[in-house]
Amino acid sequence: MPLKRLSVTGVRNLQPVTLHPSPRINLIHGANGSGKTSLLEAIHLLGLARSFRSTRLQPVIRYGEQACTVFGEIAQRSGVTNSVGITRSKEADYQIRMDGQKVRSLAELAAALPLQLINPDSFRLLEGAPKQRRQYLDWGVFHVEHQFLPAWQRLQKSLKQRNSLLRRGRIQRSMLQPWEIELVAAGEQLDAFRQAYLQQLKPVFEDILAQLVPLEDLTLSYYRGWDREKPLAQVLDEQFERDTQLGYTQAGAQRADLRLRYRGMNAVDVLSRGQQKLVVCALKIAQGYLMKQHGAQQDCVFLVDDLPSELDEHHRRALCSLLENLECQVFISCVELATLRECWKTDTPVSMFHVEHGHIVQTEDVWE
Questions:
Q1: pLDDT for 46-84, tens place per residue?
Q2: Within a domain: residue 120?
Q3: What are the binding residues?
Q4: Are residues 27 and 39 in the same domain?
Q5: What is the C-alpha separation between 224 and 365, in angstroms, rounded?
Q6: φ and ψ at residue 229, rounded to 5 degrees
Q7: Amino acid 240: pLDDT
């Protein structure tokens, strides 16, 4: 059970509150604008130190306050409970503490509370830039492969140095060599991690997708970021002149992408908006199932914003069943509680929280 206790202060219109969520299903209901999404946003802040609603921090902090604070008690599979707190100020500074000690790496925070968000913007995973799909892929690899983060950091450092030299204009080829050696080594290691992860993810994704929508001709493939027929070192050498003209590195693991095609065409161009949302749901839920198969130290927590408005009743029930069978902690917001009332088994722990004008109150059990 990840979040045993959640305390929120200074987040948007929410009044200060302390909640004790269910280890399984948590339904957050109330009128539009009442603060339901803000509660999900607070959990997102706790796990990733950033909002999913705004790139700027100032709108997240309650009017008249200088900072917002979210505190949580997170239970690990081992039975250990970690106390985690994050404070973010209007100046964009943040302080993170875990068990009373300062946390300097956001990776520690992400590892302690793995989060997956499903909301009205989720379909952008398909239609957005490759960076979004690459982040999706790397999220999964990060949570199952302990050597991913060091390799990713090496790639970023060597790439930054190579690009900095390229921007100087005409330079000697030898000046790039030390950084290219590191770029190639880190890039090939990341590529191996990503390929191994995707090989495990694909059958899980296909099984889950089949339970949501019949799209047998949908294919999921991986582009590593450079010509698959050539080693990266050769590609960098061949593209040196062009890289110098552009001032950045064109090929490498930093250009990787996931490609979804339906009957030979880009899925985003032929699938309906509803089908796209179901594909994205399947992609995200598949990562939760794969984490559980790997025996990760923590299960994934799902934040599902405004589920009923996104899906019809049939698909809503199918999605809820998948989340229920995953046996993880889920927070779902909705306007009308009745739309989710019959989606759960009678023995599944369900807690309900009513939100009105920023006030959050736990209400009677859904089965009473």
A1: 999 889 988 887 888 888 888 999 999 998 877 789 899
A2: no
A3: 30-37
A4: yes
A5: 48
A6: -90, -5
A7: 92
DSSP string for residues in 146-170: TTHHHHHHHHHHHHHHHHHHHTTSS
Residue 340 and residue 333: Cα distance in Å, rounded?
A: 10
Q: Within this chain, do residues 345 and 224 fall inside the same structural domain, yes or no? A: no
Residue 62: give its domain's CATH number: 3.40.50.300
For residue 28, being part of any structural domain is answered with yes
> What residue numbers bound the domain in which 15 lies?
1-114+298-368
In this prediction, residue 273 carries a pLDDT of: 86
Helix axis angle, 177-212 to 313-326, nearest 10° = 120
**Which tens digit of pLDDT belongs to each residue from 103-141?**
888 898 898 899 999 988 887 899 999 999 999 999 999
Whether pTM > 0.85 for this model: the answer is yes
Q: Which candidate, 144, 157, 236, 156, places its Cα nearest to that of 194? A: 144
Q: Binding site residues for ATP, as ranges? A: 30-37
Same domain as 263, residue 147 = yes
Tell me whether strands 301-304 and 115-118 are parallel, antiparallel or unpaired. Answer: parallel
